[in-house]
């Protein structure tokens, strides 16, 4: 096993400048240099260049759009390759354009079937969850509020209010 050089194991001396040794009365986040916009006069009429946050936002939007376009292009390429591979499986006696149209139709039908299956499964699960929640609420309706006892009738609550007011007179 190799040993580490002594220079790595030896702690480095901590060097602190005199400006860092003095007690800083104002934290960095409260210093005027932390807010460059406060140094400028609010009455200044000169136009400001685009801020870095808006530039970053535009770059993020552009990157997301380009990613979406790349995904669409990749899906298109994969679809074209799948159609070509399926067309190559069709016997040569069938003309290529007809085979290409047939394979494309079969792949689109398969894709829509899978999409439909996924959506119907998701909606079925949501419907079952909703039905279970509805049954839970309807079967536990008779327990009443859990806030602290039985709800009082109007007369009982008025009588209790009178007792409390007489107590503090």
UniProtKB/TrEMBL annotation:
The chain crosses the membrane at residues 121-139. Residues 159-169 have a biased composition (Basic and acidic residues). Keywords: Membrane, Transmembrane, Transmembrane helix. Residues 145-169 are annotated as: Disordered. It comes from the Eukaryota. This is TATA-binding protein-associated factor. The keyword Transmembrane applies.
């Amino acid at each position: 096993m190799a040993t580490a050089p002594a220079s790595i194991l030896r702690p480095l001396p901590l060097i602190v400048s005199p400006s860092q040794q003095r007690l800083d009365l104002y934290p960095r986040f409260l210093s005027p240099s932390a807010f460059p916009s406060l140094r400028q006069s609010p009455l200044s009429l000169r136009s400001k260049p685009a801020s870095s946050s808006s530039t970053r936002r535009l770059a993020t939007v552009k990157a997301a759009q380009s990613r979406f376009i790349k995904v669409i292009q990749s899906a298109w390429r994969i679809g074209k390759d799948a159609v070509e591979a399926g067309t190559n499986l069709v016997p040569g006696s069938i003309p290529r354009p007809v085979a290409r149209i047939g394979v494309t139709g079969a792949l689109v039908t398969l894709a829509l079937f899978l999409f439909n299956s996924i959506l119907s499964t998701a909606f079925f699960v949501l419907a079952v969850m909703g039905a279970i929640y509805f049954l839970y609420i309807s079967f536990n309706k008779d327990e009443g509020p859990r806030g602290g006892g039985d709800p009082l009738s109007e007369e009982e609550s008025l009588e209790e209010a009178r007792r409390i007011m007489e107590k503090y007179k």
